[in-house]
Design brief:
Length: 140
């Protein structure tokens, strides 16, 4: 994935639990834990959800992304050496098909996140050093 360092990619491949932040069209925030998937498409982080019996419930983050495509995602943990993680700001797009590529048990609808800004700490830097932050895409 362009934009991510090799250390960030390695970290993300071993940590699939994240927190996804979206907002309504009016700006009301919503945060939810999600599982992330790399490599579905080049430069895309995929988020899907399990196909639940009787259709489950609507996913609020999907509705939010349709109204406001700006999203944020955080993957982090705390080790004996200190905190580490990756924060991503980006553009979200809902896809009506293809969720089963993320996981065969997922429903077809999935969210694609195209990163525009990445920041990491304790991954490419020591845990308490300033984060490694940068813009990775323009014009999205």
């Amino acid at each position: 994935m362009d934009g991510f360092s090799e250390a960030e990619l390695a970290y993300l491949r071993t940590h699939d639990l994240a927190r996804l932040a979206t907002a309504t069209a009016a700006g009301a925030p919503h945060v939810v834990p999600v599982r992330i998937h790399l490599g579905v498409e080049r430069n895309v982080i995929g988020i899907g959800s399990f196909l639940l019996a009787e259709g489950g419930r609507p996913r609020r983050y999907r509705h939010n992304v349709q109204d406001n495509d700006q999203v944020a995602l955080v993957v982090d943990d705390f080790t004996e050496d200190g905190p580490r993680g990756v924060a991503i700001h980006g553009v979200g797009r809902i896809h009506a098909e293809g969720g089963e590529r993320l996981n065969p048990r997922f429903e077809p609808v999935w969210l694609a996140i195209m990163p525009t800004w990445i920041s990491s700490w304790g991954v490419d830097t020591s845990p308490y050093a300033p984060p490694f932050s940068r813009w990775v895409a323009e014009g999205l």
